[in-house]
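tool=predict chain=A
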Amino acid sequence: MTTVLIADDQPLQRFGFRMLLESQDDITVLGEASNGSEAIRMTAELHPDVVLMDIRMPGLDGIEATRRIVAAGDRTRVLILTTFDLDEYAHAGLRAGASGFLIKDAQPEELLSGIRSVASGDAVVAPSLTRRLLDAYAQHLPAGDGTGDVAGDDARLSALTEREREILTVIGKGWTNTEIAARLHLAESTVKTHVGRILAKTGSRDRIQAVILAYDTKLVEPS
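tool=predict ok
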């Protein structure tokens, strides 16, 4: 059973999400929060598997709430719901530790699948947002300091093999496991094993955090 906390300042939006989620045999809604502060408090009390988090809420917004929930070290994962006009917040959500992003007008099955995936430890990004999210994040990276550091020359990468660095690079470019397997001529099971080792060795929570690492360490340069 996957447990969910809904955090959204609009009562009708929360009602709609609750109706959808409670129609599923494997999902239980533990509660509803109308702002970021409530989301943090209720997460600490209820320990949901997933917080369905709106970005724009009064008082403490969804980005800061996500940051504090993740920093608390609980097992709870955050799935942020965004809209097309909020792309500028995407990089902040990635930095805050969100495990996924979906567009608010996603199809019901996409939302349900996203919640289940995030609860199981996978990262979820709406296909239509993937490249835009990466571009938005890249635009907010600090400029180079002119020291001429070699791309990927970072202590966080020291434990990776050459193949793992190669796979981390293409993860940063938004490739799926299926695409990596096909283009690098590997079995998809082998790719999954490599990805798991990369996450473990670099201390990345999930695939989205691995994307951030690829940009931060200059394995991937902004397009």
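The CA atoms of residues 77 and 145 lie 34 Å apart. The two ends are 41 Å apart (CA to CA).
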